[in-house]
Structure of Cephalosporin hydroxylase:
Amino acid sequence: MIDFEREVEERVASYTDEKELKKAANDFMIASTLPKYSYNFSWLSRPIIQYPQDILAMQEIIWKVKPDLIIETGIAHGGSLIFSASMLAQLDMCDAIENGEVFDPKISKRKVLGIDIDIRSHNRRAIEAHPMSSRISMLEGSSIDESIIGQVREIAKAYSKVLVFLDSNHTHDHVLAELEAYAGLTSVGSYCVVFDTIVEDLPTGVLSSDRPWGKGNNPKTAVWDFLSRNSMFSIDQFIQNKLLITVSPDGYLYRTR
């Protein structure tokens, strides 16, 4: 372990006693939700709808895991797909540098597979026109539809290191069905990240009332349900303790076996 990593571990461990720091982070999450703070950011020109802290965590995970396939449920404007594709492009470039190779940046063995029940035509056009599009494939349909699940599983067979991001419908039943469908595709030593588990922790009235999810019915309750019957994953507490500000407490699931 290098000195920096050791220092980070020690610093994060010390946050256990930092009550004011944790309260400030929690207060910020509550105060920033209704004003749609996460809607302010883009990645390479596409809206990403994530908190910067979680974006940085995803970067660290991708560099650590070095996946050749990233499966994402929920596309929206495509910012997360572009982010993932750009990170895979960085991995390709680093591989080429380390191996002393010349490579075509449009050709890659790595892929991002996005799934959404409704890919708006203007978003699809923008994603397909983006320089990162050669690393992106999209499937339109419900992420828990058997035909979509079958297609994803078939595609995943061609890859050896799979990373999964779940960020579509946030109801308990939907997320649980996604976990049951896709978590098993996650490679050992990789992650299945479930976004917006924060819903369980937000006070009543913070979320828009027109959403079908809320306290007791959300991604975190689905994660808890899934983990109660699945021993292949553990919650990476270190990530959320380091971030402090995250939409995914208990959502960074590390596959151990």
